Amino acid sequence: VMRLTKPTLFTNIPVTCEERDLPGNLFNQLMKDDPSTVKGAETLMLGEMLTLPQNFGNIFLGETFSSYISVHNDSNQVVKDILVKADLQTSSQRLNLSASSAAVAELKPDCCIDDVIHHEVKEIGTHILVCAVSYTTQTGEKMYFRKFFKFQVLKPLDVKTKFYNAETDEVFLEAQIQNITTSPMFMEKVSLEPSMMYNVAELNTVDTAGESESTFGSRTYLQPMDTRQYLYCLKPKQEFAEKAGVIKGVTVIGKLDIVWKTNLGERGRLQTSQLQRMAPGYGDVRLSLETIPDTVNLEEPFDITCKITNCSERTMDLVLEMCNTNSIHWCGVSGRQLGKLHPSSSLHLALTLLSSVQGLQSVSGLRLTDTFLKRTYEYDDIAQVCVVSSEVKQS
User: Fold this and answer.
1) Co-location of 204 and 115 in the same domain
2) What is the CATH number of the domain that holds 69?
3) With contact defined as beta carbons under 8 Å apart, do 189 and 258 qualify?
4) How far apart are CA 361 and CA 32, in angstroms?
5) Is 393 a domain residue?
6) Rounded to two decimals, what is the model's pTM?
7) Name one GO cellular component term (predicted).
8) How many CB atoms are located within 10 Å of the residue 142 CB?
9) Which long-range contacts (CB under 8 A, 24 or more apart) does 162-170 make?
10) Do 69 and 178 fall within a single domain?
11) Which of 172, 309, 157 is nearest to 253 (CA)?
12) Which of 94, 123, 155 marks a domain boundary?
């Protein structure tokens, strides 16, 4: 049994000395004449020739394990009904990897039966390749033997995720991917497959001269023990955006699909399990800002748009009260009746206010009262605006 892998670059041990030593320039000349060394860089250990693997080597989760199996008749007799079976034993299951389950009628002396098996490794830990051969001799005696080949499957990547729930229904996902192997990786693809309720936008590119360019540059190599951060924004689909109760309870966001290549092009792929977030708690009534200016003039009115959503399972009759603060003053009538708001329904409010103090000011002082239960909901620090003098020109 021999594992089928890509060849590796030949490494040599340079032997050299100073010119005043006894060998003189002999060692340097021998290295220059060696066909395996790189011309002009003979003292480097890395050669320009390829060598075949001498052992199973490292096998990582997500890669495809390929092996060549050969059964050779070393005797001078013809054997019959030869059946070759290859199984892969893991900690949880036993898989049959044989390409064919049919027996070979006969095998002459010095002839062999060859088979190539492939398996995408999906578990880490100890794996045992069990090769069993059964045959019948010329005298009719049935013979059987097995050989075991043990190898370890290692974890190639360490993936950590963080979720950020925005004031709107958007969810931001930060994925930290670390290369924990001993060789560089070429990150071919890192994408997020969202759940059925969300659309995803990748935030890992920048527009340069009208073209989209990766934030990691044109060479997306990940060196050993290096970590790279990917960012994604998930927005609810239109048919679910208005269903506040549904979006509120959604914890399953999607799964990451990672594809990489190592050494001479060996391909690996990992797909995480479904990523889950902690569902945000909005309470009975959720207030979010739809529009608000970044910069406003001192003592000049400006408009904001609020969205009020009933996240409870009962109908509410809401009254809006606006309370002034030291810096923020509301324009309009306080105590306004908003009417009935059914479960999972929402309404938009256009409000006007002004600031009497310069600097970064917090919008506060909104109060919603449910007249059915006589319950008041207070909303402070809703957002911040930068207040500047009217003499300063806004850019």
Assistant:
1) no
2) 2.60.40.10
3) yes
4) 74
5) no
6) 0.66
7) TRAPPIII protein complex
8) 9
9) 163/253, 163/277, 163/278, 165/277, 165/280, 167/288, 167/289, 168/288, 169/235, 169/236, 169/241, 169/247, 170/233, 170/234, 170/235
10) no
11) 172
12) 155
d(CA 305, CA 323): 17
226 shares its domain with 318: no
Q: Of the residues 155, 180, 207, which one is the last residue of a structural domain? A: 155
List Cα–Cα distances, 73 to 101, 146, 261, 329, in angstroms: 20, 15, 39, 95
* Whether the Cβ atoms of residue 8 and residue 50 lie closer than 8 Å to each other: yes
101: helix, strand or coil:
coil
* Nearest in space to 353 (alpha carbons), one of 306, 307, 303: 303
Domain housing 118: 59-155
Task: Give Cα 164 to chain centroid, integer Å.
Answer: 16
- Residue in this structure with the two tokens 């080597």, named with its chain if needed: 57
Residue 121 domain-assigned? yes
Nearest to 71 by CA among 30, 38, 100: 100
* Each residue's pLDDT tens digit, 58-75: 789 999 888 888 899 888
Q: Beta partners for 214?
A: 205
pLDDT tens-place string over residues 103-155: 888 889 889 988 889 999 999 999 999 999 999 988 888 999 999 988 889 99
Which H helix or E strand runs over 246?
helix 244-248
Domain shared by 92 and 149, yes or no = yes
Number of domains in the chain: 4
What are 133's two structure tokens? 């051969």
Contact 118, 59 (CB under 8 A): no
Q: Which secondary-structure segment (H or E) carries 145? A: strand 142-154
Give dist(CA 393, CA 317) in Å, integer.
Answer: 43
Residues of the chain with pLDDT under 70: 42-46, 53-55, 167, 241-250, 279-282, 391-395
Do 180 and 268 lie in one domain? The reply is: yes
